[in-house]
Amino acid sequence: MESSNTQDLDGNILVTRQLKKYYPIRRGFNPFGGGGNRFVKAVDDVSITVPRGKTVAILGESGCGKTTLARAITLLNPPTAGEIIFDGQNITNGKVDYKKIYREMQMVFQDPDSSLDPRLKVRQSVAEPCKGLLGRDQAHINSLVMSSLTAVGLSSEQAERIPSHLSGGQKQRVAIARAIAPQPKLVILDEPTSALDASVQAQILNLLLDLQKNFKLTYVIITHNISVAEYLSDLLVVMYAGNVVEYGPSGSVIAKPRHPYTITLIASAPIPNPWKRNLLNTEIKGEVPSAINPPSGCKFHPRCPYAEKICSDQAPDLREIAPGQFVSCHFAEKTA
Ligand SMILES: Nc1ncnc2c1ncn2[C@@H]1O[C@H](COP(=O)(O)OP(=O)(O)OP(=O)(O)O)[C@@H](O)[C@H]1O
Ligand code: SF4
Ligand SMILES: [Mg+2]
User: Would you say 240 and 300 are in contact if contact means Cβ atoms under 8 Å apart?
Assistant: First the structure.
């Protein structure tokens, strides 16, 4: 199975196996010299599965590696090690049709302001990626552009505007239209609503649900917001310092988190307006771990109220603690 290019994924459109993305630290960055073989371990051994037609949310503090993981999966920043199996094909062994992969896996970037060219009209922005991916049939591209703009609720008049003449919600609609225009199978959305007001946020979330149904899309949604994850996702992946620490059905993980980090995240967010349960505002005691010299053993041990000696000696495996719920903690049974 490992050596084959085509693989049976058992209903999953995407599987990652021990995916790593390390950024080398350049010499110039280190005032004491050296650093030739030091790395920022942004994503460190991540294995996830994404079922076809479902939504997987990736949750975690700033800097835990969410965007890096998304960029590695989409091969925008190819991984350092590990495997990515997409739609039955190993796309990390170099023997792939990159154009097909770039068309079938689309990403909506974290900040629409920086991902939309300020000089291009909406319809040009949406057409841009299609040109490289779908060839020269301009009539076909125009038809895909106009149908995706209609699908996200933008008018033909709005299609002629430049981004500075759009609201935040409309810009995000353009970014989504651009992602769905090439008719992808998987869309990865990086913080799709974090910059929006609560009412606009709800409109975009509902739009995403409609699009998923109408176009049979699979989503990976990166978010700081537990309520967004709860509303949209079927499965939840909780990341800490480049690792997956908990993974399972979203309802079960949110109702009964079992990793001490997830417990702390969810416990520290019980405020009256659920749409504001934003992890950006969550304070967890202790220092955010260094991605260059992470703590030994379990990376959460310096901040964990349950830590014992074994925790700094030995990294815990991801184990199934409840049906479908996997937790990487030596004492996961105690926290339940
Ligand atoms: N190009 C890069 N070169 C070196 N280090 C990087 C690079 N991109 C990201 N990093 C580092 O990798 C780690 C993970 O960053 P990443 O942007 O993936 O986090 P994130 O979870 O998306 O954070 P946020 O929620 O703030 O968007 C951080 O320590 C970051 O500084
Ligand atoms: S392994 Fe130890 S330090 Fe890590 S989360 Fe579990 S109890 Fe805490
Ligand atoms: Mg990010």
Answer: yes
Residue that the structure tokens 């993974």 belong to: 247
Any ligand 1 atom below 6 A from CB of 242: no
Q: CA 222, CA 234: separation in Å to the nearest integer? A: 13
The yes or no reply on domain 12-335 and CATH 3.40.50.150 is no
Instruction: Write down the pTM of the prediction.
Output: 0.91
Distance CA 88, CA 96 (A): 12
pLDDT single digits (tens) 189-248:
999 998 888 889 999 999 999 999 999 999 999 998 888 999 999 999 999 999 999 999
Residues 292 and 286: beta-carbon distance below 8 Å: no
- Beta bridge partners, 225, equal 278
Q: Is the four-CA dihedral 9, 10, 15, 17 of positive or negative sign?
A: negative
Backbone angles phi, psi at 35, to 5 degrees: 85, 0
For ligand 1, the distance from its centroid to the CA atom of residue 144, given in whole angstroms, is 33
HSE-up of residue 228 (Cα within 13 Å, Cβ side): 32
In this structure, which residue's CA is closest to atom 2 in ligand 1? Answer: 23
The domain spans of the chain are 12-335
* DSSP H or E run through 57: strand 55-59
Ligand 1 mutation pick, 30, 66, 108, max ligand atoms within 8 A of CB: 66
| 52/9 Cα distance (integer angstroms) | 10
Distance between CA atoms of 306 and 234, rounded to whole angstroms?
29
pLDDT at position 4: 54
How far is 293 from 77, CA to CA, in rounded Å?
22
Closest CA to ligand 2's atom 1? 329
* Ligand 1 pocket: which of 26, 68, 76, 224 to mutate (most atoms within 8 A of CB): 68
How close is the Cα of 67 to the center of ligand 3, in Å? 4
